[in-house]
Amino acid sequence: MQKKSRKMFHKNQFGGKNNYKVTFRGEEMLGMLFNNKEVKEMEYLLKRELEELLHDFEDKRIDRVVKHAMEERYQILYKMFTRIAPQTECMKYIRSKAVFRERESL
What does the chain look like in DSSP terms, one character per residue? Predict the structure, then answer.
């Protein structure tokens, strides 16, 4: 009996010629090709979102439940940012240890 492959590549339904979906270990991933200008634009957008989240984490008026959702979003955006930005740029958006202690109490 042949073991089923866990990877499946197929053309994305979005119609773009450079978009491909990959199913790997039950998760769908989207692969895209970007030119240099598009990478810079993506980097800019992610920086702005990360800056906004970091600023909002400091706001004491925001409820803990909302901050928990913000934390999940921050983790996703930061991981995306680390894939395209230089390590020196990524260091600017790392949260402080005090924030991690606060997160553990949630």
Answer: -PPPPSEEEEE-TT--TTEEEEEETTEEEEEE---HHHHHHHHHHHHHHHHHHHHHHT-TTS-HHHHHHHHHHHHHHHHHHHHHS-HHHHHTTPPPHHHHHHHHT-
Q: How far apart are CA 24 and CA 9, in angstroms?
A: 9
- In this structure, the answer to whether residues 63 and 99 fall within a common structural domain is yes
| pTM reported for the whole predicted model | 0.69
- Residue-number span of the structural domain to which 43 is assigned: 34-104
Whole-number average pLDDT of the chain = 80
Which structure tokens are listed for 42? 């993506």
Residues 88 and 44 reside in one and the same domain = yes
